[in-house]
Design a protein that fits this description.
Among the domains are: 120 residues, no CATH class; 90 residues, no CATH class; 38 residues. Helices cover 3% and strands 54% of the residues. It contains two helices and 39 strands. It has a 39-stranded antiparallel sheet. Strand 8 and strand 9 form a beta hairpin.
Amino acid sequence: MLSELLLASAIQIGPFWQHDGQGSAALRPLWSTTAETTDVLWPVFTAHRDWWRFCFVAHYQTNDAGWQFSLLPLWWNGTARRRGEEDAEPEPYWGLFPLWGTHPHFLALYDFDFALWPLYHSYSTPRPGEDRMMRSHSVLFPFFHWRDDGSWGFWPVYGVGHQRESDHRYFLWPIFTWADYRADRDTSGAGFSWMFWPLVAHVEREREDQWLVIPPLFSFAVVRYPEFSTPEEEIRGMLLRCPWPIFEWENSANRERISVLPLYERIRWRSMKDGEFSGSVTRFGWRLVEIYDDEIRVFPIWTSRSDGSYFRLWPFWESSVRDGVEYGRFLSLFPIRHVPAVDRNWSKFWTFYEREENPVEVNHSLFWGIIRWRTSKP
């Protein structure tokens, strides 16, 4: 095994200045750039190929339909095509919240319009299982609302809602609610449900039977498939909560789970193809300790994959394997892995040693490249 001492790089000055000659450079913590991203005092400002963002409040983006700008939550404007009109010319839109505005796609809502919100707003959503839209309206949100499928409500006095193969109603919400279900292969089938909150609730459908006491604290559910011939095959799942969310036990077609929050949780996933167990995780202290089949995590101190592709002993050491090359560094203070913006702008300040190992050699860098050496493999 041979070691070779290398000269310090002329394009790196401590953690402050770095230039690799391949389009990446940084003057930390003021500025950094790569082939696609430029940061200025991250997270203050970031610019990507087709967007830029300032303080997570101002945002500008270009796309095939034009552009959009937003100054959340007060102002937005841009151009966009309506859903289903991909060949049409982009139309302008804008909004000054809460006075007046429209937006083509806001969260999961399409063609969102409002005036003196909450005085009035309306929006469209896809009809479940259908290739068309459904329009919803509200006046003095959340008190008066109606949809073009016949749903309407005067909250909290009385309301009617239609959702795919079911009809839902409430009276003095949430005290009295009930629903009727029609046959549907993708859900629990035909039946009904009702709730007298906060005392009791019941669900009785072709493939589900559930009772709830002081919902949602205590509940017991059985999932059945009557099309199977024997009682052993008919029952395909059970769920027990007493009380939720402290204790939960589940045995279903896709997983087996027991949880005692926040002390312990055990999940074993089943393959939807053959029902055999395909993976598992055991957690302690909610998610502080997680033991997967191929990885152990003790947040934020320890992470280790069984195949050696990732290892962390926080805050001292982190190593990972990408494309057959192993990268390691000391120190590694940021407790979350794979945050490129932190690596570009901040991690160099506490990374005193870096290591890069490929099948031929191992490259070392100490004190931001002031001392470098290479070790050749036999």
